[in-house]
């Protein structure tokens, strides 16, 4: 089997190198392998990224009935005896790639001039936001150090770092890095809103820093619009505009869930259950953060973060069940929290269904 599997894996590596390891540019390749029943051979590769795994899992599930597992070599070589040479799948893929060669070459002509990122206003504003958040977090309660503080500092740092990583020649990867930066900015705003709800910061501090985060998103969006409409002509680039997460119903309910969980965990029964207490708070706030970060450019990434939010809800449900079993919370509190979680989960499931359709189209 290896003499069939290894060439397919090797061709995948070559294609990935050719498109600068951008998962968004190899999506067609993944779909092709899935349709041919061969995408499962990529799961055993030890050099694929987390984002690649998402794409592989998605197409594996979508085309699971197509997959060829048994007598692989025999199935692949079972062509009619018409005097034609046997064509292996990886050779077929090469032919498919050659059909797109003109388009690929045209895309590869679109390169950018690398500039000093420190002179970019978006980078400067992101750096200012990072510095102010680090200063602000010094006044947070010590018990939030390993939770809200670490998370908001991480997300604010990511905004600046991803902008710096986006200062390169390849336009597609610039879109990728800026998309991550936009997602981090929205996540940072979410942590600020959680902090406001906990009264760790004032309304004035929130408004000031949230406005700064929104400025970064606006600058990055305008930059990407310029690239798409000028240097990126002819390239399949995503829409740079992202929706306002604060108008998303699931996000609003997730913030209510955080308030609910913090209120519940004030009960004295949690004084001896610190692991459960912090676990419940972490799952609730993680739901908010992941919903916020999902509001960026690329569909597979949106899908992944929405899925992380659902995973956080599932973790919270398990911890609530434990608290109920230990009689730390009442049945009414448990059921009220579950109803709120279900409302969030239903909205996310519907949104993920729509995203799946857009991936398949």
Automatic annotation (TrEMBL):
InterPro entries: 23S_rRNA-intervening_sequence, 23S_rRNA_IVS_sf. This is Four helix bundle protein. It comes from the Bacteria. Gene3D superfamilies: 23S rRNA-intervening sequence. It comes from Oceanobacillus chungangensis.
